[in-house]
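Run log, item B.
One chain of 181 residues. Sequence copied directly from the ordering sheet:
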Amino acid sequence: MPWRRCRCDAGFTLVELVIGLAVLAMLLGFALPSMSRFLAEQELLGEARRLSEAVMLARSEAVKRNGHVVICATTPTQPCGSARHWHEGWLVFVDANADAEPDPGEPIIGREGPAAVGVTEIGNRPVAQYFRFDYLGQARLTSGALQMGTVDVCRPGLRGYHVVLANSGRTRIDRAAGICP
């Protein structure tokens, strides 16, 4: 018996192709909003981690240098000040005269620019403008009082994060209970 060749038409019909594309479009329609929300949440967590790591850098530098090191909220054009927020950026510097202000001659350890668009980082009163660490790695206000506080990292419509400074001088990141305004 000779081998018969099958004359099979390979491929899809136009109707099958249109139905397949319609199903793919529907699946993408469901997946894209979830994916964009996931990416926005990861970006928000990344901003909280960026601030926490900068605070830990300041703490470790204070211990290493056996002196005061400050991380303060700042902008590229203005150094530390009372009207600053953390999402505008920050400056890490050696605070030789313990005034929590960068002065000429005090070494700059690092500088970070603003947070991602739409992200706010606002600290409560003890950490609204600066974190200051002594040679033991403990956070202290310029008055010498123990410094503890929380910086809220938020983006409207998402659950935010809290960067919490503990009395030991260490930070942790907690998930906020509610949705950011």
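Observations after the first pass:
- Residues 14-65 form the longest helix (52 residues).
- The domain at 14-65+116-179 is CATH 3.55.40 (minor pseudopilin epsh fold).
Flagged for discussion on Thursday.
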